[in-house]
Amino acid sequence: MGVNASGDGTDTITIQGTKSIKGFEIDNISDRIETGTYMIAAAITGGELYLKNTNPKFLESVIAKLKQTGSTVEEEKNGIRVRAGKKILPCNIETQPHPGFPTDMQAQFVALLCLADGKSMVSETIFENRFMHVPELARMGADVKVSGHTVTISGVRNLKGAPVMATDLRASASLILAGLVAEGTTDVLRVYHLDRGYERMDLKLKSVGAHIERIPE
To answer: What CA–CA distance (Å, rounded) separates 216 from 23?
Structure first.
């Protein structure tokens, strides 16, 4: 665009201002957190999804943990294919700055690990008070306990549908993921949080067989 910028690959980007810039075209990269959320959707439901127009290089830490839980993740042309394992295996997670495990995938993995065959621990090192989805998952029958910056999850066989409250963007996604496999009906309230990070999530899930509807509160 004609801007004098330097520092790519370092801790500091230096930009020299200019009075005019030129137009250009670029393809936006895929949203790694949206991709990761749908990867969890495949794993938690025991299904298989092909996620197109995404790049596994953005998700290496997430893919590594998903494989630990028993899912198969394969890179295909212009996308990723996720196949759930025969059962969900427990694992331990600690959120870290990029390229470590992203804090924005923590809530979704907690939902997955609620159904794991064993005990898992998830530590949140990036944000304070980011386990507000945990008591809502407990309302659905999850065995989850928070101590400081760590939640301990003892996997249960089934979750049960319940009215739950979405407290933030990623909590919204985690409760929807839990609702996909819960027995009965799950009502997720305050989903306006969801729309800040996902485009038509309900319609995308419905297109692959989920029983999900957006209704007025």
So the answer is: 42
Say what the pLDDT of residue 129 is: 87
Q: Which residues of 130-151 are buried (b: 16+ CB within 10 A; e: fewer)?
A: bbebbebbbbbbbebeeeebbb
Given this model, what pLDDT does residue 151 score?
Answer: 98
What letter does residue 121 receive in the DSSP assignment? Answer: E
Question: At 119, phi and psi to the nearest 5?
Answer: -105, 135
Tell me the whole-structure pTM to 2 decimals: 0.91
The number of residues making up the chain comes to 217
Q: What's the confidence (pLDDT) of residue 28? A: 87
DSSP H or E stretch at residue 43: helix 32-45
The secondary structure of the chain in percent helix, strand, coil, rounded to multiples of 5, reads 35, 25, 45
Summarised one tens digit per residue, pLDDT across range 20-41 is 999 999 888 889 999 999 999 9
Q: Are strands 119-123 and 92-94 parallel, antiparallel or unpaired?
A: parallel
Distances (CA, A) of 10 to 6, 57, 148, 179: 9, 19, 33, 42
CB 55 within 8 A of CB 27: no
Query: What is the residue type of 36?
Result: G
Mean pLDDT along residues 43-64: 95
* CA 96 to each of CA 76, 123, 133, 139: distance values in angstroms, whole numbers, following the listed order: 27, 10, 19, 28
